[in-house]
Structure formats: C-alpha cells, structure tokens
Amino acid sequence: MNTPLPSHARIVVIGGGIIGCSTAYHLARDHQAEVILLEQGKLTSGSTWHAAGLVGQLRSSASITQVLKYSVDLYKRLHQETGLETGWKMTGCLRLATQPDRWVEYQRLATTARSFGMDMHLIDAAEVQRMWPLMEVSDLIGASWLPTDGQANPSDITQSLAKGARMHGARLFEGVRVTGFVMQDRRITAVQTPHGTVQCETVVNCAGQWARQVGALAGVSVPLQAVKHQYVVTDTMAGITRDTPTVRDPDRRIYFKEEVGGLVMGGYEPNPKAWDTGLPADAIPDQWEFRLFDDDYDHFEQHMTHAIARVPALNDTGVRQMINGPESFTPDGNFILGRTQECPNLYVGAGFNAFGIASGGGAGWVLADWVVHGEAPLDLWTVDINRFSDLHRDHAWVRERTLEAYGKHYTIAFPHDEYTSGRPRIVSPLYERLQGHRAVFGSKLGWERPNWFAPPGIEPRDVLSMGRQNWFEAVAEEHRHVRTRVGVFDQSSFAKFELRGRDAAAALERICANHVARQPGRLTYTQMLNTRGGIECDLTVARLADDHFYIVTGTASRTHDSAWIQEHLPARSEAHLTDVTEAFGTLSVMGPSARSVLQGMTDADLSNEAFPFGHVREIRIAGWVVRALRVTYVGELGWELHVPLAGTGEVFDTLMAAGRGFDIRPAGYRAIESLRLEKGYRAWGSDITPNDNPLEAGLGWAVKLKQDTPFIGRDACVRAAGSALKKRLVAFTTTDPAVVLLGRETILRDGTPVGYLTSGGFGHTVGKPIGYGYVRHEGGVEDGFLHTGNYELVVANERFAATLHTTALHDPSNERVKG
Ligand SMILES: Cc1cc2nc3c(=O)[nH]c(=O)nc-3n(C[C@H](O)[C@H](O)[C@H](O)COP(=O)(O)OP(=O)(O)OC[C@H]3O[C@@H](n4cnc5c(N)ncnc54)[C@H](O)[C@@H]3O)c2cc1C
C-alpha cells in the first residue's frame, strides 16, 4: 500500500472482488458518497479471478431477475464510461431437457420469463443441433433458449468497475486487511487495520467467503460455507466459435461456455466437497491470494463422463487447465444482502453461490442504495440477510444444509419440495403427538411444521410431481373439515414479540400503518411500511395493557420484523422489544364449532358479545393462563391460543378431548394456504411485498389515513390515494379445475400481458384453482377497467380462460380480518 489510509471515511467497503468493487462504484456514481474500499490482497484475488463467467438472468423472484438484468445492461456499456472492456458477449443460453418433468419445468420457466418481461423460447432437438453442431442431441426432448444471456470476463468487469469507482471519487486500497472493529452501542465507529484505524459511519462487508469471519468481528452472523467448485478449460475445438451459446445441461449436472475457441466445462456434484480449512471455527486462511486447490480429477470425473456423452468431440480434445477454486454458498442457494440486525451500520453483500459475476453489477446497485437510504430500494426479501435467524449461527448446521442446497443446484425444481438435511431441528411440544396423527412436516426457519396429515392408506410423505401431488385430496378433506366443523393448527412457530414501556404505544403508532394503540384488550391487523409506502411487515398487534403490546408475525419474518421494529423505534423512547417466540406455543382452533369446543374448556365467556372479533383476553384452560386472540387467517370463527410453552401439550390434549364430540381434528399448513386463498387474505413475501403499497394490495382499509397520526409511509399512501392506482391485486379462478397454479403465471387481458400471479393454489370449497396477482395499467386500474377485459392465465406456456375477482371468493362475512 503506497497511499496512506485516511483517518476517516463515511463508508468503508471491505473486499475488492466483483461485489465490493460494484458496491463502491455505485456508491460513488449514484450517491456521490465518500467511500473507501479496503482489499487485503489485490483486487479480484479472492473468488472473482477464477470464475467461469457465465451470466444468466432468470430467477424465480421478479426483483432478483431485475437485479441480474441490470448487471447485463451495465456490462454492456461500462467500457464506454471507463475505457475498460468487460468481455461481455450476448451468446444466449440453452438449457437442455431430457426428462418430461424437466420439460414441464422449462414450460413453467418460459412463462415466468414472459411474466418478468423476458423472451425465453422452447426449441426442439433439431434446432439445438443447428445452434450447437458438436452436441449429441438424440436424448433431448428440447431446450429452452434465452437469447439475452451471455458471458463476460470476471476480472475485466471488476477492474472496469474499480476504475469507474475511482473516476467517481472512491479510493481503493490494496494490501489492507481489516482486522477488527471499534464498536459502541452495537454500532461500528471505526475499522481497524495494520495500517491504521479508519473512523467511519457505515461498513459494507463484501469479503466473499471471508464475510463470515469479518462479520463475526462485529458479532454478526453471515451464514455461508466455502465449497470447492471446479471446471476445466479445453484446447480449441473445431466447431466452437466466439458466438457459441452457453449451455446448461442440468440432467447431466454440467454447463459449457466458449473460451478462446475451446470450452469451459464445469458442474454441480450431488456430493460436493466443503473446504475444510482445519483452522479454528473453519476460518478461511488470510493468505489465499490468487490461489487454487489441487486438481481433483477423481471428483470431477462424473462431470467429464457426462460432458463427453453430450459433446463427443471432447474425447479427442485436450484439457488445457483445471480450475478448482473456493466459492461461498448459502443454506438456501440465494445470496446475502442488506443491513444486519446485530449491528445496524454494518451491511453485507456476500455468499453468491457461483452466480456472483451474473449478480455483481445489480447487487452493487441495490446494495449501494440500501446503504445510503437505510431501506432496500425494492423487494429483496429472498436475499435479505434478515431471512436468517439464530439457528444460522450454528455453523455445523449451516454447512450441512448448504451442501444439500449445492447438490440440488441442477435438480428439477418440483413445487413444494422441502430440504431434508439438519431436520428435525426446532420442534413444538406437539411434534410427537402430531406424528401420532400421521403428520407430514415441512420446515420453516428450522421449525418442523405439519403441512398435512396422511389419512390411513396414504403413505405419510410428499411424493413430488409437476402436476397434482399425493396430498391434494388429504388437504381437501382438512380444508372442508375446517369450513364445516373444527380444526386445530399447530402454529407454534409464529414469531412473537413484546413491546413494553411508557412510549410503546406512541412508537407503534408511528411504525404501524393501522391504528394499533386501541384500548387494552384489542388487537389489530396492520402493515408496517417503508418510506415508499411498500409493505415491509404484515402482522397482528394485541394491546395487553397500556404499556404492553404482544406482536405476532409469520415464522420466516422473525428476524426481519424484529429488526424493522427495533430500527424504527424513535430514539430515546422508552419502548423495549423482546422476542418471546419460544415462550408460547400456538394452537389455532378454527371452524364453526370452535366456540362450542373451547367453551367447554374454560370458564371465560366466549360469546360474541363478551369476546368479539379483534379482541385478546387471558383465559384459563387446563390450569394454564392462555392468551386467546380472536383472529383468523382461514376466514372462520376461531381463536389463536398462545399457551405458555410448557403447557402446550396439555392444552392440546384437553382440546382434542373436549373437541371429540365436535369431530375436531388437526390440520396443516397446506390447508391454511387453500383456506386463505378463498378468503382473500394476503401472504407477505408473495402477494404483498416492499414493492407494493396497501392501496394497491387492497388493504387500504387497514391504513389510518383518516386520522392525523403521522406514520412511516404515510406521505406515500396519501399520494397513492390521491391518484389513479396503476396496479391492483386481484384474484383469478380458472374454468378448468385441473390447472395447477403456483405463482408467476402470466396474466393476459384481451391477449396482452398485464401482470403475473404472486401466489396460486386450489380452493377446495369453491372447487377451483385460485391465483392472486397485480393487474397493471399505466392509465389506471379502476373497477371499470378491471371488469371489462377478457382474462386468461398462461400456465406452463398454455393459455387458460380465467375469471377476475375483486372480492373474496368464498363468503367473506364470517370473520373478516387476518391474524
Ligand atoms: C470455479 C468457479 C466458477 C465460477 N463460475 C461462475 C460463473 O460462471 N458465473 C458467475 O456468475 N459466478 C461464478 N462463480 C462465482 C463467482 O466467482 C463469485 O460469486 C464472485 O466472484 C464472488 O465475488 P465476491 O466479491 O463476493 O468475492 P471475492 O471475489 O472472493 O472477493 C472478496 C474479497 O474480499 C477480500 N477480503 C476478505 N477478507 C478481507 C479483510 N478482512 N480485509 C480486506 N479484504 C478482505 C478478499 O481478499 C477478496 O478479494 C464461480 C466460482 C468458482 C469458484
């Protein structure tokens, strides 16, 4: 390092790989931020220099696809600004299918692409052969073809971004390792290095596979695992040209791309090898600049065999080089971005699962915006670091799940597929009891949750398929049971918080879009909004006392929602948030007979007059004081019973005994999904996200615009209310009952795409497939517009007649509000 380090910088980016350089570039270019970047070795010397350079764009999330599309746009034109080429070539990408289920996957993928504004074509084997003459195509059903994908040179992109960052005023330092942080009140005040200490306001951890240990210096968990990832580079081959499309052959677990007239070929093994560094806590060594592992031909042979079968000319082609490098992978295959809960001025951009080159440009763009504004510029939930929890501090668990995720990289994406490793991890006190009822469990944030219950004669396990799956009829029965009699759901995994203190009510009024500081004993369904009016949280707030609130939210939102509340509590307010998730088990008793069953178990008066909808009471059941919340997400009469954890089993047993005469039965999460679709309850993360405001989502009734109370997102809601909405969430049913809706299907109005489904499933009372989605129209989406069109849904590339609904599909009169 020649230039001395400054003693102060507003923002310090750690890591000079593609992600750090892209983040520094965007911070400097888009926000004129005062930023320095510290790289322990040379720029690109981590994972970036040895990447293969394939750049794909389509993901299952619209926002992440947008991020990847941005990368391509940037790589195309960056040289015009910096004078340094990125090596971008739009070769297009072929994905090969040799199995019928894979073909259905591509038909769905092509529809998703269309929903997200991209043209993916499905072509036959003869067309593949024409585009790629060296390929053996006799086993192909066909291929998908995305012409706008391509490849680029990872080091060149990074150097170009670094130059661009400098041109906009960023300062980049090589040979400077960050060794520690000076912390005060959970925040970093300075970054320590052997070359001096830099005072700063914000730190961005883009340290690649080192991000876990860099995060740990600030007490932050960054759950990733370095895995050995290999590819070979061949000698030149006649028939391979600069324009040869990249190829993914997932049924053979391999990929190809052109490189100086030969091929790069790599793959994803079902039996990946983690990098066991042998250092304490499996730390990545400091000294790993431009280094690789020894070639591992034994492990790679599985790919070589498949590659030769696919491209026989490889038999006569020499291998010029093998690359065996480490890359960081994550437990769910998505990368990690955003503000950390543990240290609010530390952001992370890491864990890129071998698509960091494809993501780099866009990830830097959104991360820079997030850093500067303190909130994500679009719905980045699938990559948000706050999708993880304390569970992910267990590195052994993270490693096991990450290796499973790596092994699934190229497997067929069957709907409703569940991970199997590291389970069971967190179980409710009812786990064994529910097993006794033949529960089939899924897992969410480590919790085992009953998805469905197998009737006698049906094996209690999911049998995956692309069409209707084996649980369909069993779930239909559970659904009908809840609609007509009574069911009990174990929802103990709900995240639960308490906010206590003199200022708790005022703080929540500021954070929540709905009026929540009602009388003690009331509960309110509300959203929490960002400054754009986008929905960040969707939860129930129960007021237990003047200074005591009980907050219930979805299992997966636990870290995210608690971080959101914590970060938005007004400074110096007396309001203390505690996570009490594990203190209470949750039994939701739902259905027309719910009152009759419960009334037999408690002295409390459960009549509608004494205990109306939207109220919370402490009642005594089986000797336990239970928080009973009169809410529903399935649209039936019912209560959520929040029981002290130790009493959950006993209360369940009493409930099952008291309910025998009413034919009570347990039901699972797949029934909840079907029930809520019919009643029009929105699901956060799919139907309602930070991209959508409550008015667009049909939740304007839950926003306190008629009151003067200020709240975060109010201005945006006022603006939205004062002008014509350009998109609106509505429901669709298809006339054909056999259609399988999953989400991302394209909505056509009079033959023109106007949006896509955000969620989909089947309503067993109405007997129809149901999907939700935003219909978009620049000229406004008032009822007149919505109800005049002819609608179709494109499902797996086929068009089906559909009916649009602006109200709930099943009688909404029972119990109105979600909890
Ligand atoms: C074999 C292989 C093939 C791949 N092929 C592709 C592909 O085709 N397409 C694709 O999109 N992706 C591919 N990838 C993935 C891609 O290489 C990575 O996702 C990407 O390079 C990650 O970039 P990064 O900036 O996060 O990490 P890195 O490039 O590792 O950068 C992190 C930097 O942080 C620095 N650092 C760490 N700790 C400190 C510290 N304490 N202080 C200062 N600096 C620090 C490191 O020295 C390093 O330079 C491939 C990866 C491998 C291994």
Strand-helix topology:
Blueprint: E1 8-14, H1 18-31, E2 35-39, E3 54-55, H2 62-82, E4 93-97, H3 100-115, E5 121-123, H4 125-131, E6 142-146, E7 150-151, H5 154-167, E8 171-174, E9 180-184, E10 187-193, E11 196-205, H6 211-216, E12 225-234, E13 246-249, E14 254-259, E15 262-267, H7 297-310, E16 319-329, E17 336-339, E18 346-350, H8 356-373, H9 395-407, H10 431-436, E19 439-444, E20 447-453, H11 472-484, E21 487-490, E22 495-500, H12 504-511, E23 523-529, E24 535-545, E25 548-553, H13 558-568, E26 576-579, E27 584-590, H14 594-599, E28 616-621, E29 624-629, E30 638-644, H15 648-658, E31 665-666, H16 669-679, H17 714-721, E32 727-734, E33 746-749, E34 752-763, E35 768-776, H18 783-788, E36 791-795, E37 798-805
Parallel strand pairs: 1-2, 1-11, 2-8, 4-13, 11-18, 21-31
Antiparallel strand pairs: 3-7, 4-6, 5-6, 9-10, 10-11, 12-15, 12-16, 13-14, 14-15, 17-18, 19-20, 21-27, 22-25, 22-26, 23-24, 24-25, 27-30, 28-29, 29-30, 32-35, 32-37, 33-34, 33-36, 34-35, 36-37
Bound molecules: flavin-adenine dinucleotide (FAD).
